[in-house]
């Protein structure tokens, strides 16, 4: 078995399925488990910290772990940084077969901090029978010192190990999401996968084609693939049962993806529309962004994604990758906003309204399929999406361990 600790809504699992493999996820969150069930993924609903390891001994070929990041994330109070010495102590003790978690947990400022030590409990038990064959772990960058502690232990057990920080955008994810990664193997030299994308496209050389440019939000969502600018198209299902807007082209792209049941790569388009015009019958739809301003009123404006309503919020144009997506209580603050286009000499004075990002759009920016079966209310869905591992990044991390080779276009983005 491939065991996936803290498996969430299935970022690692979906990547494995695209590579022809399956895992067994251990997950506690009710709605993440329901999402996994709807996606056809094997799941044991359990508290990873309480689940016994003995049923897995002798049956586990690989271990994947993405402990909850809330205690460490810059989006929260970051009490995990205060608890870090306790977590390091827990890892050291568990690596020696000593379970001091209860005593250490009593001293933690955030009870979730110690979850980052849980993979060592599993690794120690599996190591006694020469398992697992390989390990892959992921967390926010501030956890890198802890991964290096894991690495030292695993090297002592005969693993080749690499630990460092990778940018998801370098692997075709339309998001500059930086994560601390640990890769370990008993059978091959552990190393990060070669990047397939770069901030600036690289020219072809005698050694082959250079890396493609980072994938933009517009390209991932299919905006600019039609003659319509973004975002104008409206669809039902908004707050309180009212209509909720989707950007131009999204409805068609979502339908196409649902029919295919797979990812699709949208070719890069030139001359992405800079403004938004409302044409056709949907422009008269009540409460739609189209009804807020007349046709052509937004000439000279470009669309960007604002991560939250804080003064230091990340704002990225649609022709760039998104910043790191995180949600929680800020789910409704992640919005598409209009700003004067850089090439506009005199933008229209009628500023288009901000539009909240949808769960489907956020999922696509994490490289899940557009029709991925997110379960729960909007807050629960956004929480799952923000905590998930981007499947496209996961696929590049896992492929070498599974004897697979991925090129830049092998995992095309969801529509």
TrEMBL record:
Highest taxon listed in the record's lineage: Bacteria
The name this protein goes by in its record: DNA (cytosine-5-)-methyltransferase
One Pfam family of this chain: DNA_methylase
N-terminal signal peptide: none
Top-level class of the enzyme under EC nomenclature: transferase
Region (Disordered): 257-289
Keywords annotated in UniProt: Methyltransferase, Restriction system, S-adenosyl-L-methionine, Transferase
Organism: Streptomyces orinoci
Protein family according to the UniProt entry: Belongs to the class I-like SAM-binding methyltransferase superfamily. C5-methyltransferase family.
């Amino acid at each position: 078995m491939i065991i996936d600790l803290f498996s969430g809504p299935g970022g690692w699992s979906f990547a494995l399925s695209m590579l022809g493999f399956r895992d067994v996820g251990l997950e506690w969150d009710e709605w993440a488990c329901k999402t996994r069930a709807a996606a056809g993924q094997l799941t044991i609903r359990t508290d990873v910290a309480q689940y016994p390891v003995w049923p897995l001994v002798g049956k586990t070929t690989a271990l994947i772990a993405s402990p909850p990041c809330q205690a460490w994330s810059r989006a929260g109070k970051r009490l995990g940084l205060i608890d870090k010495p306790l977590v390091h102590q827990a890892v050291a003790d568990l690596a020696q077969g000593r379970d001091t978690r209860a005593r250490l947990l009593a001293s933690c400022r955030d009870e979730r901090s110690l979850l980052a030590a849980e993979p060592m409990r599993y690794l120690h038990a599996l190591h006694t029978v020469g398992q697992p064959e390989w390990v892959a772990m992921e967390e926010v960058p501030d956890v890198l010192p802890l991964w290096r502690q894991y690495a030292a232990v695993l090297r002592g057990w005969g693993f080749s190990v690499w630990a460092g920080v990778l940018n998801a955008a370098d692997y075709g994810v339309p998001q500059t999401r930086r994560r601390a990664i640990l890769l370990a193997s008993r059978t091959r030299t552990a190393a990060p996968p070669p990047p397939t994308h770069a901030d600036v496209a690289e020219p072809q050389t005698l050694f082959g084609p250079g890396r493609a440019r980072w994938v933009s939000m517009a390209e991932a969502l299919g905006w600019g693939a039609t003659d319509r600018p973004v975002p104008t198209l409206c669809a039902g299902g908004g707050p309180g049962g009212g209509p909720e807007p989707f950007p131009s082209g999204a409805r068609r792209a979502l339908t196409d993806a649902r029919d295919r049941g797979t990812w699709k790569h949208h070719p890069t388009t030139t001359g992405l529309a800079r403004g938004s015009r409302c044409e056709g019958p949907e422009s008269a739809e009540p409460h739609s962004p189209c009804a807020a301003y007349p046709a052509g009123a937004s000439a000279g404006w470009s669309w960007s994604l604002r991560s939250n309503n804080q003064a230091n919020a990340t704002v990225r144009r649609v022709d760039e990758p998104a910043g790191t997506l995180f949600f929680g209580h800020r789910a409704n603050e992640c919005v598409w906003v209009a700003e004067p286009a850089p090439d506009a000499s005199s933008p229209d004075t009628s500023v288009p309204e901000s539009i909240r990002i949808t769960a489907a759009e956020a999922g696509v920016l994490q490289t899940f399929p557009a029709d991925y079966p997110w379960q729960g209310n909007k807050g629960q869905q956004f929480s799952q999406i923000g905590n998930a591992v981007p499947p496209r990044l996961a696929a590049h991390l896992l492929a070498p361990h599974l004897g697979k080779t991925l090129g830049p276009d092998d995992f095309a983005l969801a529509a």
